[in-house]
Amino acid sequence: MTLDAIDRVAVLGAGNMGHGITEVVALAGYDVTMRDIKEEFVEDGYEDIEWSLEKLAEKGRIDEAPAEILDRIDTTTDLEEATEDADLVIEAAPEEMDIKHDIFSDLDEMTHDDAILASNTSSLPITEIAEATDRPERVVGMHFFNPPVKMDLVEVIYGQETSDETAETTYEFVESIDKTPIYVRKDVRGFVVNSVLGPFGDEAGWMVSNDEATIRETDATMVHERGYPMGPFELGDLTGIDIGYHVRKEAGQPVPPIVEEKVEAEELGQKTGKGYYDYEDGDGA
Ligand code: 3HC
């Protein structure tokens, strides 16, 4: 499939990444359906898109009125309805291989034969996700960064069987939504960015768990002495503490106790109002 043939996009998942990806795809002029498993998830994601578009409009960052962009977004909880006419599906579901396999095997049945099936997985192997389908050549990684509206980079990841045509069309699609793609030709856990970012979070997690530094000291050092836009704990709160947790678990890596405690307490970051910092009753990061 070539870029010209992509008219309709489906995004699976209305969480942080799903609704952000839906927004950037609609901003670029594509018709897009956002699907999640529960109506309340879809509604929350849609409200976040409305909020974000209003912010962009207030700051003069978009040429169209938010309502016109929202007109290009449909929502549903029905997987078949979301994907039957889609030329490109971008899956942004939880980071568990069983869930990905269920979705990709359904997609293989429901979508037309030429449709590209992309996964926004943070670090699960594309090759293994593609095994749930009879078209591994049309399965590709398309990894956005949080928040998708603000972050420029998108990794386009080859699984072992991904065809050049699929990867090239995906790369061109990323350019068409005004992002900067890079190819990742080795299907290793974490791809490029999370291979680098993993230790950034892990080292900080172990230091705080071992009482060598506090959360605030660690974040302040990285921001004020190292020039990062956010420290590792603030970033964990933004991306979701459970995301990094599942990535480490799926990779069989040890998880720093501070991370484990937060996940057990369901304090997952901004999305739950509390993580390493308190966003409801406190001042946030
Ligand atoms: N839509 C529209 N506006 C938004 C927004 C969104 N989604 N998110 C934030 N804004 C607004 C803010 O509300 C703020 O508005 P205000 O000035 O009226 O208060 C404005 O944008 C400016 O925001 P900030 O002043 O907080 O900060 P910056 O614009 O300077 O930068 C940032 C924000 C780009 C998020 C920057 O802090 C950053 O780069 N942080 C690191 C992010 C990062 O590393 N992401 C990758 C995570 S890893 C990942 O996603 C991989 C995955 O696999 C886990």
**Gross CATH architecture of the largest domain:** 3-Layer(aba) Sandwich
CATH level-3 fold name of the largest domain: Rossmann fold
Number of beta-strand segments: 8
Low-confidence stretches: none
| Ligands present | 3-hydroxybutanoyl-coenzyme A
Query: Cα-atom Rg, whole angstroms?
Result: 19 Å
Query: What's the CATH first level of the largest domain?
Result: Alpha Beta
Oligomer: single chain
Largest sheet, in brief, is: 8 strands, mixed
Q: In brief, what are we looking at here?
A:
The protein has 285 residues and is an alpha/beta fold. It is built from 12 helices and 8 strands. It folds into 2 domains: 3-184, NAD(P)-binding Rossmann-like Domain (Rossmann fold, 3-Layer(aba) Sandwich), CATH 3.40.50; 194-272, N-(1-d-carboxylethyl)-l-norvaline Dehydrogenase, domain 2.
Structure, described:
- The chain is α/β, with parallel strands linked by helices and 285 residues long.
- The chain folds into 2 domains: 3-184, NAD(P)-binding Rossmann-like Domain (Rossmann fold, 3-Layer(aba) Sandwich), CATH 3.40.50; 194-272, Orthogonal Bundle (N-(1-d-carboxylethyl)-l-norvaline Dehydrogenase, domain 2).
- It is 45% helix and 13% strand.
- It is built from 12 helices and 8 strands.
- The protein has helices at 16-27, 39-58, 66-70, 79-83, 97-110, 126-130, 164-176, 193-209, 215-225, 232-239, 241-250, 257-264, and strands at 8-12, 31-35, 73-76, 88-91, 116-119, 139-143, 153-157, 180-184.
- The protein has an 8-stranded mixed β-sheet with strand order 3-2-1-4-5-6-7-8, with helices on both faces.
- Strand 5 (116-119), helix 6 (126-130) and strand 6 form a beta-alpha-beta unit.
- Helix 1 crosses helix 2.
- It is globular.
- The mean pLDDT is 96.
- The structure holds 3-hydroxybutanoyl-coenzyme A.
- The site of 3-hydroxybutanoyl-coenzyme A has 17 residues, from helix 2, helix 8 and helix 10.
